[in-house]
Write a structure and sequence with these properties.
Structural class: alpha/beta
Shape: globular
Number of domains: 2
CATH topology of the largest domain: TIM Barrel
Bound molecules: iron/sulfur cluster
CATH superfamily of the largest domain: Aldolase class I
Length: about 375
Amino acid sequence: MPRAEVADWRWQLRHAVRSTDQLASVLDLTPAEIAGARAAEAAGFPFSITPYYLSLCDAQNPDCPIRRQVVPTDSEMETAPGDMRDPLGEEAHEVAPNLVRRYPDRALLFTTDRCAVYCRFCTRSRIVGNGGGARSASDLAPALAYLRAQPEVRDVILSGGDPLAMATERLVSIVKAVRDVPSVETIRLATRVPVALPQRIQPELLAALRPLHPLWVMTHFNHPNELTSEAGRALELLADHGFPVMNHTVLLRGVNDDAETLATLFRGLVRHRARPYYLLQADPVRGTGHLRTSVQTGLDLMDQLQGHVSGIAVPRYIIDTPGGLGKVALAPERVVSRHGGVTRVRTHRGIEVDYLDPPDSAE
Ligand code: SF4
């Protein structure tokens, strides 16, 4: 295949692998993967993998951390206790078509249902890949009218699907329409494109978006193997064009649930000027029990990272509460005791130290 074609993001999307037979011609699929892929093809949550992202998968190893993120298995047909179709209650919090508001000053705008890859842990598996493609201007008109009428919403997150999987012209026109709402200060682009389709991050795209700053990019690197030279170049270009890049890592069983993998990922992101922002406890999405860890695993991992990895490389550990009631930050317990103005804490070395409040402070 000519290099120029492979480097073209449109070619990557056109040649994304979407059928079980195609997938089986590239990877040695297990019976569980074949059953999962056939079920995904027949109904429900489809799969789609760009040739680039597929090239990061180990063809012989079904436990490959990249492969586990995008290749369906028959475990997706199982429902665990607590699994939900819409774990963040987005349908209940829809304030206008394509607009979800769960916080006073923020709102989430659905711009498309299409993505470069369909992640098997996706919170929106109920809609992505099956919901009609990029939203038109008239589709988004009620959402924009709502934003104009609600000036306390200052921060709008463009999501989907993946907004950067849309054509540049469509993306820019949506960002401009949101930017034209006088009360909107910050616009965020929530995207896995730098991970799964870094060829999309081109100077032409960034030059078209740059006049619409402040624009933040919220991306989702989950494993250090995703930090290839192509992805690194995409992150560097974003930083060079003035886009702050914040990364959400979803904590996934068999992908990144060990401290060394996370430390390598977070340090790599910082080297490319992307800030590890959240380590997200995986949402209890229907059919993802095989990919989720316990909360204790997350707390233990944070305990191993804090103090051992530079503060700018350690994200906050977050549970997005089921039902859409908001995010809660969790941290390993470091307070040993607290009374009489003396707080005893445990350091990352396991040493207990007292901190004394000033004498005039009320207890
Ligand atoms: S790119 Fe985002 S919206 Fe699309 S499938 Fe992955 S997690 Fe879901």
